[in-house]
Amino acid sequence: MSYGARLAETMSRRLGRECVYTPSARLALYLALRRWCAPGARVLMSPVNDDVILFVVLAAGLRPVQAPVSVWDGNIDPAAIPESTWRNVDAVLTTNLYGIPDRVVELRRRCDELGIPLFEDAAHAIGTRVDGQPIGTFGKAAAFSLSKHAASTAGGFLAVENAGARRELETLRDELLAPRRLRDDLTATLRPLARSTVRTLHLVRPVWRTLQRLGLLERDAYRMPLHRPRLSARGLEPPSLDAYEPWVRVDLHGFRSRHGALVRAQLELRMAALDTNLTKRSAGVAHLSETPWASPVLRDRMPVGDAPLPLFRAPLLVRDRDTLITRLIRHGVVTGYVYDPPLDDYAGPEFVEPSPSPEAARWFASHVLPGDPLLAQKLTKALTSEQTTPALPTPTPAPTQS
Ligand SMILES: Cc1ncc(COP(=O)(O)O)c(C=O)c1O
Question: Residue 400: what pLDDT?
Fold first, then answer.
């Protein structure tokens, strides 16, 4: 039986695709990029994404090409991609940011016409469907993360089209897995428990502040420090995960650890509770969609006549977002998953190809407040008491562009 086979089978049943278990989504994505892209290939992606993903693309020896995005959700806007860009990319990577689906049908069609692979970053989108079809089944391969909906600090999957690809990727994964370390296993097992205890005891605020004071948070801004000269030097080496490990491991040092049976048993329990979690998220999204801060995508990109999507976060659009994030801590609400500035502004043209029209990404990245649907009531109360003003881009695009 291959490593993590039981977990992979559970995910396979959910998705209807062959799955490979990985200790993280970032490792899953790296496997896919190495398998299907030759070094030097150009990958079209949204600049509103986790910086870790940028470093995964660089570690695979690829050039990240930043796409124009929708101002309402930060996902790639296929209609705004110039033909000259399409002619010069070798693959497309979606984000499904916060669980809002990318325009996958259009992207898939275009990728098929060009004969290039579509990869899906489904880390935020484990319960998201488009016309009934799960996100993660539209492309050549899709990466899922269990540290998001399932609230663990380990685990991920790479979903692929057939058993042949699965076996091949299992072998590649096994070559990249780092030997098991008890410390990583303990961290992966205990950290989610510690996190829920903090929540339950209403200790979010003091604990978060203490972590910040002790320097235990790896970032003091939304983006990690780039360490430009070191990063330039890595670009001269052959592609490898080892060369980029200091960047790729941020927020999840065990991202390539071969976790033991204890961690995997805990993940099985979390997978078993996933549907309950998704139902609660869907209810939270319904609540947040009715607030004045809701991005129009919370109406426009939801299934018609069905329950709202069980999003990882609901995009709310607010004025003075950064001040608000600090003030929300007083209400016990810690906001994560803010990807500001966009990757082209953050890394510059040495490391990424800038978007031909960066304005929408800049506006969305600086105004979005990713609201946790599981905290919908508390968050709404806090936003109301802070007299939060909704934000709208100027000029405001027509709804068809959403
Ligand atoms: C959009 C996105 N993709 C991928 C990842 C990586 O997931 P993991 O932490 O499981 O490697 C993250 C992590 O936050 C993310 O936000």
Answer: 46
Low-confidence ranges of the chain (pLDDT < 50): 400
Contact (Cβ atoms closer than 8 angstroms) between residue 309 and residue 282: yes
For a mutational test of ligand 1's pocket, the pick from 43, 94, 124, 224, i.e. the residue with the most ligand atoms closer than 8 A to its C-beta, is 124
Tell which atom from ligand 1 comes closest to the C-alpha of 29.
Answer: 4
CB 189 within 8 A of CB 60: no
Domain CATH for 321: 3.90.1150.10
**Could you tell me if the CB of 123 is within 6 A of ligand 1?**
yes
The pLDDT score that the predictor gives to residue 151 is 75
Is the beta carbon of 102 within 6 A of some atom in ligand 1? no
Cis omega before residue 303 (within 30°)? Answer: no
Rounded Cα–Cα distance for residues 126 and 123 (Å): 7
Ligand 1 centre distance from Cα of residue 382 (Å):
27
Residue 192 lies in a domain: no
Query: Tell me, what's the pLDDT at 395?
Result: 81
Report how far ligand 1's centroid is from the alpha carbon of 395 (Å).
32
Domains in the chain: how many in total?
1
Whole-number pLDDT of residue 399: 57
Give the pLDDT of residue 199. 60
DSSP 364: H
Q: Which residue's alpha carbon is at the smallest distance from atom 13 of ligand 1? A: 50
**Residues β-bridged to residue 157:** 21, 144
pLDDT digits (tens, 9 = 90+) for 190-200: 665 565 566 66
In a domain, 190, yes or no: no
Tell me, what's the pLDDT at 195?
59
- Expressed as residue numbers, the domain containing 306 is 274-401
Q: Which residues contact 25 (CB under 8 A, 6 or more apart)?
A: 121, 122, 123, 143, 144, 145, 147, 156, 157
pLDDT the model gives residue 57: 98
pLDDT of 339-348, one tens digit each? 999 999 999 9
Task: Please compute, for residue 59, the number of CA atoms within 13 A of its CA located in the half-sphere on the CB side.
Answer: 24
Q: How many residues does the chain have?
A: 402
Pocket test for ligand 1, best of 76, 98, 145 (most atoms within 8 A of CB): 145
The closest-lying atom of ligand 1 relative to the alpha carbon of residue 124 is: 1
